[in-house]
Amino acid sequence: MFRNVLTEQANSTIIKICPPRYSGRMNSRETPILLKKVHSYLLAKSYDFAMRNTEKRCLQQWRSNLLSQARGNVLEIGAGTGVNLQHYPGHIAQLTLSEPDPQMRRILQKKNLTTPTIPVHITSWEIETTGMPDSSFDTIVSTLVLCSVPDLSRSLSEIYRLLRPQGTLLFLEHVASDHPQTLHWQRRVEPFWSLCAGNCRLTRDTAVAIQTSGLEIERCIEAPMAGTPSFVRRTIRGSARKA
Ligand SMILES: C[S@@+](CC[C@H](N)C(=O)[O-])C[C@H]1O[C@@H](n2cnc3c(N)ncnc32)[C@H](O)[C@@H]1O
């Protein structure tokens, strides 16, 4: 579906063993690194399978509606295994897919990226450190990523900086519950959940954070994400514009 694939390897760690294999004695410093690699490998390998039911029940429809609004030069952050690829409209000028996790990016790179119209560029950027100049993009897409970034307000400041005036952030995120009891459970489960699920936080008030960054929310739909545990169910999706 996509035309050109320029793969940027700068800043990326190339992991040659897949899955990482034990090769002799490890010291105490190597153990957590190896565990992190195994964890990242398992997460990436199981992601599409774990999400398949939710994708069918709601996410595919939401992604398609959301991404139909993408225009111009588009950056998708945390592109994961490339689940949004099929939903981009043919009229966008250029698509940059950034995915810092090497295992996720490996799966992304294997996707069919051939298109007659859209040049596609894959990078290893984290949103906080893209090194791109101000006002580089017309649209930035974040689906199920702002829950995982280490510092939400720093990431949103960077998104603000990278957007052109009148540029748009398209977001689809799970957020803190508005039911006190569920919120209570989210707080209790969060430390364990974030360890298992790639730093995914359950209690972020992402809509407020978006507005605090200076972006103006134009549209925001709240809906439960079908097929997920109650503590990740509440989602928001919509668009926010840079004035
Ligand atoms: C739950 S997955 C979502 C994947 C995909 N966007 C989707 O909609 O299914 C979260 C992704 O965010 C990425 N991520 C985490 N921290 C990031 C950061 N600081 N900058 C960019 N991406 C990040 C992870 O590597 C992971 O691929």
TrEMBL record:
Under Gene Ontology molecular function, one entry of this record is:
methyltransferase activity
Gene3D superfamilies from the UniProt entry:
Vaccinia Virus protein VP39 (3.40.50.150)
Gene Ontology biological process terms, A to Z: methylation
Going by the entry's taxonomy, the superkingdom of the source organism is recorded as Bacteria
Q: Which UniProt keywords apply?
A: Methyltransferase, Transferase
What protein name is recorded for this chain? Answer: Methyltransferase domain-containing protein
Source organism of this protein record: Desulfuromusa kysingii
